[in-house]
Amino acid sequence: MEKEADLFYRQLPKVELHAHLNGSVSLSTIEKLVARKPHLNIEHGMTAIRSGQRRTLDECFQVFKVIHQLVDTEEDILMVAKDVIREFAADGVKYLELRSTPRKEKTTGMTKRRYVETVIEAIRQCKNEGVDIEVRFLVAVDRRNGAEVAMETVKLAEDFMLSTDGLVVGLDLSGDPTVGHGRDLLPALQKAKNCGLKLSLHLSEVPSQADESELLLNIPPDRIGHGTFLHPEVGGSQSLVDKVRKHNTPLELCLTSNVKGQTVSSYSQHHFLYWYQMGHPSVICTDDKGVFCTDLSKEYQLAASTFNLSQEDMWTLSQKAIDCTFAPDLKQQLHQKWLELRPTLFQL
Ligand SMILES: CC(C)=CCNc1ncnc2c1ncn2[C@@H]1O[C@H](COP(=O)(O)O)[C@@H](O)[C@H]1O
Ligand SMILES: [Zn+2]
């Protein structure tokens, strides 16, 4: 029987704002992909980092390369996206913002436009099948690919924002944080902001990026991914913190990802506490639930047990996340849903 606390966190209605599509592929979907491509000789150990395991950031990024080999056709992307959406729904996520990087045509046999269309198709199919979750999409820019590709991606994202009835809501900046510099991507990010795309930027995910963060915070972004090294105690600065505070920019915080990727030394050292105690908008997210063998319920439970927070605190945290979404049209509906679900949850 499921333990009472597990049940509480699974039933808690949740908002997931930071999920990379190909990092979110579950074991059962990986098995289906491996069966489609036995010649690749890929085992699950190569696509996930299990409990207790730690990897360097570099090793983590190698894992994405393996997953990308497995997910390289239109059929794969449709299946992966549908499976991921259904899994988040089964975990009690009521609103999901997925993000994914359209890859070079020669690696997938399809154009970047077709890649995004396929993810949108998966979102539509899940909606038509009655999966109980609202999904929106952020087109991702991989910082490793430089300024020109970033600009192309922004144009693509803008086209989709205008043609998908609000399903494409923004732009993500991600990829190996040790490669490239945000200054080169500034024109593309500014263009995205000016045309109405919401911006979620991976920021200060590794140490010594204070200059870059300073620059990118001036845009300013609409949300920050990780922000692990923003505050002074870890080599950031008060000026960075002040900027984030001034704009009240929400942080997307991913505990397991940071501990397994070794940018944070232990759960109790996670910067969640710094921002949460300040009353700053902090949203618990998974990052890559497949790679890091987690789900959003586990992340909520982990935050509660690590920082000694009550179920009531966690309820408030999940409810406040609604105000950090990039879908203003859905906020009222989501708040209503939370209110309706509350009585059943606290009767447990
Ligand atoms: C290595 C590590 C600790 C990962 C967690 N932190 C991350 N930091 C930056 N970019 C990421 C991270 N996790 C996933 N991504 C991005 O998401 C991609 C995978 O999802 P997709 O193909 O865009 O659908 C990766 O190739 C990478 O560009
Ligand atoms: Zn991320």
From TrEMBL:
In Swiss-Prot or TrEMBL terms, this protein is called Adenosine deaminase-like protein isoform X1
A Pfam family = A_deaminase
Q: Name one GO molecular function term.
A: metal ion binding
Domain of life the protein comes from: Eukaryota
Taxonomic source organism? Salvelinus namaycush (Lake trout)
The protein's assembly and partners = Monomer.
Would I find Transport among this entry's keywords?
Answer: no
Residues forming the Adenosine deaminase domain are 13-331
The cofactor named in the record is: Zn(2+)
Family the UniProt entry places it in: Belongs to the metallo-dependent hydrolases superfamily. Adenosine and AMP deaminases family.
Q: Which sequence ranges form a coiled-coil region, renumbered to this chain?
A: none
Instruction: Write out the entry's keywords from A to Z.
Output: Hydrolase, Metal-binding, Nucleotide metabolism, Zinc
Q: According to its UniProt record, which reaction does this protein catalyse?
A: N(6)-methyl-AMP + H2O + H(+) = IMP + methylamine
A biological-process GO annotation: nucleotide metabolic process
